[in-house]
Every structure is written in structure tokens, then in C-alpha cells.
Amino acid sequence: MARGEFLQGEAMNNPVKANFNPLCDVHHSPMRRVMLEESASESTESFHQCERRDCNRIFRDGFGYSDFGDGEFDASRVSFRQCPACGGTLYLAEVDHTRKVETWECVEIECHHTEDAPSPSGR
């Protein structure tokens, strides 16, 4: 599959940045990296989870934002932004509350794409 043919829900095999810190797309709160042990297989998957106790939002490279509860990924509220430069996944990196602007960055190591978008709270 060519990079331009990347589809939502298909994790890319390209290396992602080791130290990226996404913000929750709902609360703009920091997210922490969580390791999920898969009992059915020997693979271990990591994702970022909102640090707010009352929030179930997570971020996964290749899938974007969704909810996670009762040990299951819930795709009913998926929010996915694809990088126009490389096809990777964009994450919410910064929010300027004064200007009401969100800054989104690509997770791919080789890609330095960022884009600003109006914050939904500012609309």
C-alpha cells in the first residue's frame, strides 16, 4: 500500500515519535501513555489516555481518538485526522485558548507537518 492510500483504522508500520504528548480532544487535558496487555495474544499495545478520571478518551496511532471503557475500544465516537503530507495520524499537540486555536501534529518520525485549526470551544 502506498503512503497516500492509508485508510482510517489501519495502523501504519512507520515508526512514530517516541516522545509525543497528545492532549485530550475533548477536554484539552494531558494524556498519559498506557500499556494494554492483550490476553488473547502476546502482543502489547500502547495508547494515550486522558488523565481526567471522568474521561474515557484515548489516542492510538493509526486510529486517532476514541473512547476506552471496560477493557474495550469504543469506535462510536472516533475522531481521526489524517496527515496530508504523509498519511500518518495527527494528534492534538497544543491549544491556544486566547486565540481559540488548536495545533495538530503528525506522529510520524520523518514528518514535521503541523496545522492550526479553530478550536470547537471557540466557535
Short recap of the structure:
With 123 residues, the protein is an all-beta fold.
Describe, in plain words, how this protein is organized in 3D:
It is a single chain. This protein has 123 residues and is an all-beta fold. The protein has one domain. Helices cover 0% and strands 41% of the residues. The chain has a 5-stranded antiparallel beta sheet, with no helix packed on it. Strands 6-7-8 form a 3-stranded antiparallel beta sheet, with no helix packed on it. β7 and β8 form a beta hairpin. The radius of gyration is 14 Å and the shape is globular. The N and C termini lie far apart (38 Å).
The average pLDDT is 82
Poorly predicted tracts of residues: 1-12, 39-44
Instruction: Work out the radius of gyration.
Output: 14 Å
Structural class by sheet pairing and helices:
mainly beta
Number of strands: 8
Strand order of the largest sheet: 1-2-3-4-5
SSE pattern:
EEEEEEEE
Features:
8 strands, three-stranded antiparallel beta sheet, mainly beta, globular, single chain, five-stranded antiparallel beta sheet, 123 residues, disordered N terminus
Blueprint (SSEs and pairs):
Elements: E1 31-37, E2 44-50, E3 57-60, E4 64-69, E5 72-79, E6 90-96, E7 101-106, E8 114-118
Antiparallel strand pairs: 1-2, 2-3, 3-4, 4-5, 6-7, 7-8
